Amino acid sequence: MKKFSHIYIEKEVLDNPITQGILEKFPNSKRIIIDRYSEVFNRSNQNYIVQKKKQNLILAKKRYDFIYEGSELCEDFGHINFYHTSNVFNCIYDCDYCYLQGMYPSGHLVIFVNIEDYFKEVDKLTQHKNAYLSISYETDLLALEYVTGFTKKWIEYTKGNKNLVIEIRTKSANFSSVESLEIPYNVIFAWTLLPQPVIEKYEKLTPPLTKRIESIKKAILKNLKIRISIEPIMYIENFEEVYKDFVKYIFSNIPKEGIRDINIGAFRMIKEQAKRIERLKEYSPIFCYDTIVKNEVFTYKNAEELEKFVYCEVIQYIEKEKVYLLNKLP
Ligand code: SF4
Q1: Ligand 1 contacts CB of residue 94 (under 6 A)
Q2: What is the mean pLDDT of residues 296-304?
Q3: Which domain does 157 fall in, by range?
Q4: Is there a domain that residue 155 lies in?
């Protein structure tokens, strides 16, 4: 259980049952009542790195901008109406390649407790059309389930909205927190998997590969078809050997019948995001290998080659039709 030395609470959400439920879990945290989360979160001259190491929690109300158009840098899995949303700003993990670094002025965690308002916005969005909504791109919602219970609420909401498909992306090993629920067909669990040496180098604080695979197996035992996301492919010494062994390990531990699809994409981010990270962490390992800026996107010089290598490994084990590659092969 993560600890927070301070919890800031917007006055307006103090009586919200979700606020109260969260506060009960952290009886020893100092509570500070505020008017708006921005007073704390948007203060100038904050140190993101220090705050990330000693994250505090802010409980707030989201008042506008509930849903965003999906980014072109993200796989849309063939969905035309692709969106993302976030009940939480920032993440408990600390991946070196994460574009959230420096995106906000603060490293503290903000939880927007008015989840019902998100559902109302999704109701409006899906009134006359289908939508594919990623609910966990900008945080790891399942990793925070013990704090928020939001994954459960999204699953229950989605059960009643036939025009909606949601994707819950995670690096956590926390499927057991929702295992007892009835999970409808329009909820997709997606695990981000990378080789263990890459996890150790770039994904500080996340569960090891073996633990994520255990979680995936539990989901498959519930007859779910899960998504595997091999992205961002990060470069590492002995790249070919490491990724070859990794792909073999996945398929010797997960039955391919339990896999809905797999997406593959090399490390990439908007140029401005990379600049922000460089200002924060000049010696970040993401700058250790040959990179380029191409069409305003910062990526590896040989990104397509790396993707192609992993793709060729993956299709030795599973049908090509189930594999989505970010840079399509000619
Ligand atoms: S799990 Fe995702 S959101 Fe969290 S730090 Fe890593 S990349 Fe960022």
Answers
A1: yes
A2: 94
A3: 61-105+114-325
A4: yes
Closest CA to 190 of 155, 216, 151: 216
Q: Is position 2 within any domain?
A: no
Mean pLDDT of 139-162: 97
Task: Give per-residue pLDDT as tens, 39-83.
Answer: 999 998 888 888 988 999 999 999 999 999 998 888 888 888 999
Q: Which of 49, 95, 276 to mutate to test the pocket of ligand 1 (most atoms within 8 A of CB)?
A: 95
Provide the whole-model pTM.
0.95
Regarding the beta carbon of 313 and ligand 1, being less than 6 Å apart is answered no
* CB of 13 closer than 6 angstroms to any ligand 1 atom: no
For the CA of 92, the closest atom of ligand 1 is 4
| 19: Cβ contacts below 8 Å, ≥ 6 apart | 9, 13, 59, 113
Q: Given pLDDT bands bounded at 50, 70 and 90, which one contains residue 282?
A: confident
CA 115–ligand 1 middle distance (angstroms): 21
Cα-to-centroid distance, 28 and ligand 1 (Å): 27
- Alpha-carbon torsion, ordered 308, 274, 188, 221, to 10 deg: 70
**211: domain CATH number?**
3.80.30.30
Does 264 sit in the ligand 1 pocket, CB within 6 Å?
no
